[in-house]
Amino acid sequence: MSGSTGTAEAGASAPASGPEREPALRTSSLRKTYGRTVAVSDVDLSVPRGAVLGVLGPNGSGKTTTIRMLLGLTEPSSGSVELLGHRIPEHTGRALPLVGALVEGPGFHPFLSGRRNLARCAAMEPALFGADTGTAVGQALERVGLAEAADRKYRSYSLGMKQRLGLAAALLVPRELVVLDEPTNGLDPAGTREIRRIVAELHAGGTTVLVSSHLLSEVEATCTHAAVLQHGSLIAQGELNSLLESGGPHLLVSVADREAGLEALRDSGVPARAENGALRVELSDRDAPEVIAGLVRAGVDVYEARRERAGLEEIFARLTEEES
């Protein structure tokens, strides 16, 4: 699925609708089964308006199935979905004009050019009825870096270029919500940076963005919130900073004598270990100034100290291992 319908003039910021605190997305006991196979199990998800949510999970964790139910593409076996304040699938026609989506790769006509394919999408946008669709198409192609390849046939496009065209269709008009399923699939590093830039622009404009990705570094760099799926169940969700802090902050300390430093810390009951030429000190019940002062009192010369927290890869591994 690439693109959807829209309600605002191309190039403008999408206005928010509904009560200020109403989530952009909300599910309750969302479940999908195929025979005896449970693809999604009782997912309760809430996404604040204006957030950039990274949906994480191993292959087969239920990410794409969940996204398809959110967009009304797959009917839930049980549970409910609210999309921008509208019940799905009962009021799909009201919600989807406000949504742009790129799910499971774009689908276009191979013998048409990128520009003509996008023009066909623009012709179905209610917000562009009677308008100059050529301008909207040109702006969308420029935005995703396809202006120079716009008149080449779609069948000649690389996988990355096809992804870019699908993203252009999703962004033909302003959206209140943009859903991107593995948007960097097939992109080179430069293309990945462009996706990051576009997500940042959408976020700055108040658009809610949902990004499903297996690239944890990209989620950590672009998202404000995260949701982790495992075996079809939602095992963690919330602000990304809070999830990262849950892994426990630590201090990396460079000292003149690592053995003396470790001995001093352990004598004080401070958990620490040697790591990459420094000391990794867990800040579970001590603060950084107290740790440094203790080392100095013990006669250990401290060269450098910096506070760090667990990375998303570490948190993700811990969460998924706990649920295995």
List keywords for this structure.
alpha/beta, 2 domains, elongated, 5-stranded antiparallel beta sheet, single chain, Alpha-Beta Plaits, Rossmann fold, 6-stranded mixed beta sheet
What does this molecule look like?
This protein folds into two domains: 25-244, Rossmann fold; 249-308, Alpha-Beta Plaits (2-Layer Sandwich). The chain is built from eleven helices and 15 strands. It has helices spanning 63-70, 92-95, 114-123, 133-143, 159-170, 189-204, 216-222, 240-245, 258-267, 288-297, 312-322; strands at residues 25-34, 37-43, 46-47, 52-56, 78-83, 86-88, 99-102, 177-181, 208-212, 225-230, 233-239, 250-255, 272-275, 278-282, 302-308.
Write the H/E string, N to C. EEEEHEEHEHHHEHEHEEHEHEEHEH
Spatial gap, N to C terminus: 32 Å
The top level CATH class name of the largest domain: Alpha Beta
Total individual domains: 2
CATH 2nd-level architecture of the largest domain: 3-Layer(aba) Sandwich
Helix content: 25-40%
Mean pLDDT: 85
Shape: elongated
CATH superfamily of the largest domain: P-loop containing nucleotide triphosphate hydrolases
Number of beta-strand segments: 15
Structural class by SSE content: alpha/beta
* Unreliable stretches: 1-19
CATH topology of the largest domain: Rossmann fold
Beta content: 25-35%
Calculate Rg over CA atoms.
24 Å
Largest sheet at a glance?
6 strands, mixed
* Number of separate helices: 11
Strand order of the largest sheet: 7-8-9-4-10-11
GO molecular function: ATP binding; ATP hydrolysis activity
Region (Disordered): 1-30
Organism: Actinopolyspora biskrensis
Biased composition (Low complexity): 1-18
